[in-house]
Amino acid sequence: RPLLSHFYVGPFLFLYSLWAAISFQSEQSIEVKLIALAGCVIIHILCGLFCVWSVEWKTLSMCYSLSDASRAYLAKVVPTRNNGSTQLCAINRRKKESGEEELWLDF
Description:
Number of strands: 4
Largest sheet: 2 strands, antiparallel
Strand content: 5-15%
Oligomer: single chain
């Protein structure tokens, strides 16, 4: 997905611009405005940390599913039970001598 459509970027750009528009027009005290901004920042930080902590959240917020592996750049690898944890791996490409493209990944 493009960077602006990632869940931890696009919605927060909208949220911060909405906060700025409301806070400059509002008659509220500066403390109320800063508390609202701090709440937005904390939620934004948590979304970024969830991308580090959880592969499921990262794939939900950054990726979309493709049926054709030749167009993909990442693959979510889910191993069998007790053989490791789920990872998001880069798909590598190599041209064979016959001219066809070979896809492979390191897990």
